[in-house]
Design a protein that fits this description.
single chain, alpha+beta, Alpha-Beta Plaits, 3 domains, two-stranded antiparallel sheet, 8 strands, Nucleotide-bd_a/b_plait_sf, RBD_domain_sf, RRM domain-containing protein
Length: 357
């Protein structure tokens, strides 16, 4: 459902109150059903979209709105008369990702259209969110006095980030570069840091509060595109306890997944099984040669400092040259090949030896 002509300072709570208790919107535990669209460059508030559990429920909500309006009740958000109409996932995605060129949306799934070589003004698909949009999203919070629209609704950039992370088409791994993800992750970390500062200083307890902060970091931890190590950085920055982090999909010892950029444990697989294969990879990529004390001392003196990793020296099997320019799919192929090489290296001796008597 689309709500048009909304006040630029409208809040999520006001929209919930406007919809009424009978509105069956999508569950908010793992989903953000209300999206107040903000133009990332100017911070101007546009329309609001509400996701319902079904098309029928959205139609029922609009019917109730029309009946109330005919009876002289409702129709206002704040001091404004608003318009309500049925919308679609396609329309929502177009509004959330306006800079995504050469894209056709089918529900929330995009189809990338090849660039027309005869159109010299068509630069083709350049990503779903531009660098400029993410930079400005942070700037609106850093310098609100320069952003007249976000000055009076300081929560809007954070709500925009939540909607962006949730609706971002992470499944399009062949079209999302590691640089694209890095920019979005960097913006997320910056905004989280700024929000923590605002909440701690009690700058605006109505709009910038602990509830909003929790919505942002929970969304970031559940983001399908962030790596385990990225999520662990968020856990550390937000001082989140391990149990809560695990419930949000962060694996144990996520800080030691630093060598893996694109692969993570599946939520529906027991972590003991994951740990088994991780151990195989670690053992297969770590030297086990017996050294004398003198040789060990000499090796330590020559050793280049390395970040600790659950995966041993797996990174020696992956060529990370210019990896930020690679798509997530291209880098995942390299990392998966390294996984297979290490596991084969670990299991081959046992397979060749055959069953024990």
């Amino acid at each position: 459902m689309r709500i048009k002509n909304i006040p630029y300072g409208v809040t999520r709570q006001e929209i919930l109150a406007f919809l009424g208790r009978n509105a069956k919107i999508a569950a908010s535990n793992d989903h953000e059903p209300i999206h107040i669209i903000m133009e990332r460059v100017t911070s101007k508030t546009l329309d609001a979209y509400v996701e319902f559990v079904s098309f029928t429920e959205a139609s029922n909500a609009i019917t109730r709105f029309d009946m109330n309006r005919m009876g002289g009740r409702g129709g206002r958000l704040g001091q404004r008369h608003v318009e309500v109409e049925l919308s679609s996932q396609e329309e929502l995605m177009k509004q959330l990702f306006p800079k995504a060129k050469n894209v056709e949306w089918h529900g929330n799934k995009p189809t990338i259209i090849d660039r027309d070589e005869n159109d010299k003004y068509n630069s083709g698909f350049q990503g779903f969110v531009s660098r400029e949009e993410l930079v400005m999203l942070v700037k609106h919070v850093e310098s609100p006095q320069r952003s007249p629209f976000s000055k009076d609704c300081p929560q809007r950039p954070f709500e925009c980030l939540v909607s962006t992370l949730i609706k971002f088409p992470w499944a399009m791994v062949n079209h999302i570069t590691c640089q694209d993800r890095e920019l979005l992750y960097k913006a997320t970390m910056q905004l989280l840091g700024l929000l923590v500062e605002r909440v701690d200083n009690n700058d605006d307890p109505v709009n910038l509060n602990a509830q909003l902060l929790k919505r942002v970091w929970r969304t970031a931890l559940k983001c399908e595109g962030f790596s385990p190590c990225m999520k662990d950085n968020i856990v550390y920055k937000m001082k989140i306890d391990p149990t809560t982090a695990f419930e949000c999909g962060v694996p144990p010892q996520a800080d030691l997944w630093s060598n893996v950029w694109t692969i993570g444990p599946r939520k529906d697989v027991a972590y003991d099984l994951v740990q088994y294969y991780v151990t195989l990879i670690h053992d297969a990529t770590t030297e086990k040669k017996q050294l004398t004390l003198a040789e060990k001392a000499a090796a330590r003196a020559e050793e280049v400092p390395r970040l600790p990793s659950l995966f041993g020296n797996l990174d020696t099997l992956v060529d990370y040259t210019n990896c930020l320019d690679l798509t997530l799919a291209e880098l995942a192929v390299k990392e998966w090949a390294a996984f297979e090489t290490a596991i084969r290296r670990a299991l081959t001796p046992a397979l060749e030896a055959g069953p024990s008597n």
